[in-house]
């Protein structure tokens, strides 16, 4: 995986750039010490790292605007960063770019219970939004496993999901409005507290844009009333393909659980060793299904799901009887990624999404690919919406192992696309899937996406090297003129 070659002229101006930044924000909000910059050298895709040119920590929308305006005027690249929990390398710094960290913009600005929304700054953590409103019986629905650390600004950038997004939607379904700073320093507002917009859905364009279009400085989120009751079922299967078929059967029956997660044997045992959630260890696959609503509805649906599960080969079913037990059931799943870290020195987390009906086939193929590459794969995923999170175990101390893990991950993602799925469900493209974009999109598709990027960021200074493949068949938006049957510059590498 390559990143753009650093611009030597920009590197030579480092002292000038740092001095200018210190005139735009307080001096201690600019970090240029080589040791201190190491904190920002990577995000959660830790296989790749690069110390940024400098880091700026603005404390207001106006400071963000000032920094962006100066960088655009002076041709300096910018990489936005939230909490650094991105698993796709979306916040990976560049050696010739200023990294703008949003950690100081961490206040809940307004809670509007009448309109069931809250206005927060991008540095507020996902879980903190719920904590701010739960005393009044409300919560924020999207709940990534990293919700204790990940911030709403990063969630917007990646269109993050989570356990309960099957019923309540992804980030894009729970955001009403945004304030954003464009590369030239202009501050714009998209959406608001109302449910409808007029004109183009620019809010929808920005959510999931991975920091390529602007930097979000305020977010208006939907608050939902907490359900009267929620119950979780632990359903064990002797064959993980039976568990996969059960997922499709539950949805086909017209039941939309609040969440439906699937873990394979390795994930179950690793989580149980780590959290002691009470998971059965003798299962090949474990489904966690949560139903919520009024008590009578939950009781009925729990019974329906159990019947469907047993009809699909379930060997055990346990239903939570109180809130403490429900949270314990989920504790293992929430800690699964951390628990898997005990199985190997490193793992590579993939994020692809497939149609639910393809789950059994894809699980078989992943087992085949795992054997072909000689690397174990641990499966933990949002089964209800077909969002896979296979964890490829490897040891980066062994030469070539990272490259082998990447190759296996690439084949898994190509498999997802081949069965009618997509490259990502919630982690984003970043650098991890960047060079696979041509497996999913044609030239015309990518050209349109680049044109949209250029409409917001004509100089291409925001988060360069992410999402779009670095190499292309042409120098300008996919176009190439062939004269006399001769390829121009035949020595250049091309797709």
From TrEMBL:
Pfam families: FAD-oxidase_C (PF02913), FAD_binding_4 (PF01565)
This protein's UniProt keywords: FAD, Flavoprotein, Oxidoreductase
InterPro entries: FAD-bd_oxidored_4_C, FAD-bd_PCMH, FAD-bd_PCMH-like_sf, FAD-bd_PCMH_sub2, FAD-linked_Oxase-like_C, FAD-linked_OxidoTrans_Type4, Oxid_FAD_bind_N, Vanillyl_alc_oxidase_C-sub2
Domain of life according to the entry: Bacteria
Ranges of residues in domain FAD-binding PCMH-type: 48-226
GO MF terms held by the record: FAD binding; oxidoreductase activity
Cited PROSITE patterns: FAD_PCMH (PS51387)
Cofactor names: FAD
PANTHER family xref list: GLYCOLATE OXIDASE SUBUNIT GLCD
Protein name from the UniProt record: FAD-binding protein
Organism: Glacieibacterium arshaanense
